[in-house]
């Protein structure tokens, strides 16, 4: 329908919102979402925000949930007749969500998420959980948190300020994939005085110069943040630059190691389908990649890239991420100075990476 906003629906969780959320939703729109869970499970719905202009019997704007299996309905809801609790536990594996608006003047609209009964601890979208975090806390983040409203401050190494949108921060940290959602474990620790901004997994966190208590997000069991050693570098080509004095300078593949002083690797100018290959020496569990450009004399950086892996250096498999449908395109750098990280969820098990 023409009233649908951000929507990501998967069999196990998802997030949906009205058009323009959290800005005022349009007049005279309608949207219908059909939520389906696997057979044998039921749907849990979390109302992140229901801010529809108040009216008698919610006539101007309304949210209605229909359970076709049980023949029951929930709502209609609007600002003066909202849900009784923020979490609705249904007995159905299928729910139809109906959102309608007529002429109105105010209202942020609708933000709703869902998960299945396999996650009875409930689901979370917003900022830090209420009540405040205990020493260790676990929540379930639905798919689609990346594009909901709200800011995050910090990065995986420093932690995040306590007002950061929690599930959005979990995507930024590479703890979960936005396309899948998942369980997030965190602890509340003393904050720091300066949270540096970082671009990671398609999200930009903000810089914040004041400390407080803040959440530390913990990666899933089996993942690891240690830097892997590269046994050898190879590339489709590299640039042999001849400077003004006639001296040759090779932008060779081995110069691609992060932190190398001076210039980096660069392919031959004009070459198409360029690739850089890393030999890790043995088969490893690879959980992510960090890239940076080269500001040495030239403003060089890679804006996007694909990843392939191989166990023998001959047969290559493109990385498709958690969706598995098509080759994943990673968002790279926007300048030659900053580092950008992307997580592999699920991880890659291979010796060679391109």
TrEMBL record:
<feature type="domain" description="F5/8 type C">
    <location>
        <begin position="216"/>
        <end position="354"/>
    </location>
</feature>
<protein>
    <submittedName>
        <fullName>DCBD1 protein</fullName>
    </submittedName>
</protein>
<dbReference type="InterPro" id="IPR035914">
    <property type="entry name" value="Sperma_CUB_dom_sf"/>
</dbReference>
<keyword id="KW-0812">Transmembrane</keyword>
<dbReference type="InterPro" id="IPR004043">
    <property type="entry name" value="LCCL"/>
</dbReference>
<dbReference type="InterPro" id="IPR036609">
    <property type="entry name" value="LCCL_sf"/>
</dbReference>
<feature type="domain" description="LCCL">
    <location>
        <begin position="139"/>
        <end position="205"/>
    </location>
</feature>
<keyword id="KW-0472">Membrane</keyword>
<dbReference type="InterPro" id="IPR000859">
    <property type="entry name" value="CUB_dom"/>
</dbReference>
<keyword id="KW-1133">Transmembrane helix</keyword>
<dbReference type="Pfam" id="PF00754">
    <property type="entry name" value="F5_F8_type_C"/>
</dbReference>
<dbReference type="Pfam" id="PF00431">
    <property type="entry name" value="CUB"/>
</dbReference>
<keyword id="KW-1015">Disulfide bond</keyword>
<dbReference type="GO" id="GO:0005886">
    <property type="term" value="C:plasma membrane"/>
</dbReference>
<keyword id="KW-0597">Phosphoprotein</keyword>
<dbReference type="InterPro" id="IPR008979">
    <property type="entry name" value="Galactose-bd-like_sf"/>
</dbReference>
<dbReference type="Pfam" id="PF03815">
    <property type="entry name" value="LCCL"/>
</dbReference>
<feature type="disulfide bond">
    <location>
        <begin position="4"/>
        <end position="31"/>
    </location>
</feature>
<dbReference type="GO" id="GO:0038023">
    <property type="term" value="F:signaling receptor activity"/>
</dbReference>
<dbReference type="InterPro" id="IPR050633">
    <property type="entry name" value="Neuropilin_MCO_CoagFactor"/>
</dbReference>
<feature type="domain" description="CUB">
    <location>
        <begin position="4"/>
        <end position="117"/>
    </location>
</feature>
<dbReference type="InterPro" id="IPR000421">
    <property type="entry name" value="FA58C"/>
</dbReference>
């Amino acid at each position: 329908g023409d009233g649908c906003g951000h929507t990501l629906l998967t069999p196990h969780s998802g997030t949906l919102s009205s058009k323009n959320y959290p800005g005022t939703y349009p007049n005279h729109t309608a949207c219908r979402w059909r939520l389906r869970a696997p057979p044998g499970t039921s749907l849990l719905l979390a109302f992140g925000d229901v801010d529809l202009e108040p009216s008698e019997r919610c006539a101007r704007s309304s949210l209605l949930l229909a359970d076709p299996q049980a023949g029951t309905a929930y709502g209609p809801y609007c600002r003066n007749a909202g849900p009784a609790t923020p979490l609705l536990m249904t007995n159905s594996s299928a729910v139809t969500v109906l959102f309608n608006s007529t002429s109105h003047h105010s209202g942020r609209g609708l933000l709703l998420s869902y998960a299945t009964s396999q996650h009875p601890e409930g689901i979370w979208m917003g900022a830090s959980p209420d009540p405040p975090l205990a020493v260790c806390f676990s929540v379930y983040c639905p798919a689609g948190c990346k594009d909901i409203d709200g800011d995050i401050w910090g990065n995986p190494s420093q932690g995040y300020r306590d007002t950061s949108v929690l599930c959005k921060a979990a995507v930024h940290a590479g703890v979960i994939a936005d396309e899948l959602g998942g369980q997030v474990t965190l602890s509340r620790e003393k904050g720091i005085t300066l949270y540096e901004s970082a671009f990671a997994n398609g999200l930009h966190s903000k810089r914040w110069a004041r400390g407080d208590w803040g959440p530390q997000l913990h990666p899933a069991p089996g993942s690891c943040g240690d830097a892997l050693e590269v046994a050898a570098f190879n590339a489709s080509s590299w640039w042999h630059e001849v400077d003004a004095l006639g001296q040759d300078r090779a932008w060779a593949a081995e110069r691609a190691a992060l932190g190398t002083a001076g210039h980096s690797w660069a392919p031959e100018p004009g070459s198409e389908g360029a690739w850089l290959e890393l030999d890790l020496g043995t088969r490893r569990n690879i959980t992510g990649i960090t890239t940076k450009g080269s500001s040495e004399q030239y403003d060089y950086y890679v804006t996007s890239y694909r990843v392939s892996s191989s166990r023998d250096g001959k047969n290559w498999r493109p990385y498709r991420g958690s969706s598995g449908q098509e080759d994943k395109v990673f968002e790279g750098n926007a300048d030659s100075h900053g580092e950008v990280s992307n997580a592999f969820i699920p991880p890659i098990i291979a010796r060679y990476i391109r």
